[in-house]
Amino acid sequence: MNYETLKVERRGRVGIVTLIRTEALNALSNQLMDELTHAVDALEADESIGCMVLTGSGRAFAAGADIKEMAFKTYPEAYAEDHITRNWERVTRTRKPVIAAVNGLALGGGCELAMMCDFILAADTAKFGQPEIKLAVAPGMGGSQRLTRAVGKAKAMEMCLTGRFMDAEEAERAGLVSRIIPAADLVEEAVKTAATISGMAPLAVLANKEMVNAAFETTLMQGVQFERRLFHGLFGTDDQKEGMSAFVEKRPGNWTGK
User: Which pLDDT score, from 0 to 100, does residue 68 have?
Assistant: First the structure.
């Protein structure tokens, strides 16, 4: 497929998706989200890809949803078309890990899209925010929920009620981002990190992602039981035998994904 709003590259076992609506600060339009859904579907289905990187171009990761598309949308229209649910949440259903490389502004829907990814690497120029209240609305892509889980109620409540931005240093302190990287090195470092993940045993990668995500949805006892069962299940894989043999023999593992 020829994309107009994003660019897809494959570098080794890493898929890189770059939002390129640069003139609109990569605002999330229906076309962009349709194309992103298609790109993620393709990378998910590609057995040669083990991890994805999602980033932006220019000054923004994504500066929010495209307000021009929704300014005059009515409730019946939004409800009937299942706005957002229909095509904006594909990243949350991806089994392969997705790293958000936030290169600049990640506001509103852009912040929410970054939080849909498995973790965020932030440029030292990055800024995060949920400024929807300034438009007399509220977060609609999970911002009030994921942000609260990431940084706690007090900070999330303040950001949602005032619309203030959080810089990269505060975001790292608060637990929203994993690491801060100089802007010029951001994508290369994200690809390097994704390559490290892609070099692990594929089934173990899937299991680790499922385990960590389960911590947000279950009690501690249920989460530990879920972890234990997946841990037990990995002993039924060829890669577990190879991995432990390789460790004992002090050599790299040779993974088959079986």
Answer: 87
Distance between CA atoms of residues 96 and 38, nearest Å: 15
Give me the pLDDT at residue 139, please.
95
Helix axes 202-214, 220-234, angle to 10 degrees: 170
**Cα(50)–Cα(12) distance, integer angstroms:** 9
What's the predicted TM-score (pTM) here? 0.95
- How far is 11 from 99, CA to CA, in rounded Å? 14
CA distance 176 to 150: 5
pLDDT band at 136 (very low <50, low <70, confident <90, very high): very high
What six digits make up the tokens of 169? Answer: 């240093």
Decide if 24 contacts 62 (C-beta within 8 A).
no
Distances (CA, A) of 46 to 41, 98, 117: 9, 14, 19
104: its two tokens: 């600049």
The span from the CA of 143 to the CA of 65, in Å, is: 13
Share of the chain above pLDDT 90, in %: 89
pLDDT tops 90 at residue 112: yes
Distances (CA, A) of 258 to 188, 205, 206, 232: 30, 12, 12, 15
User: Could you give the residue numbers annotated as active site?
Assistant: 65, 109, 112, 132
DSSP characters over 207-244? HHHHHHHHTTTS-HHHHHHHHHHHHHHHTTSHHHHHHH
Average pLDDT of the residues in 173-202: 97
Q: DSSP assignment, residue 22? A: G
- What average pLDDT does range 54-63 have in this prediction? 97
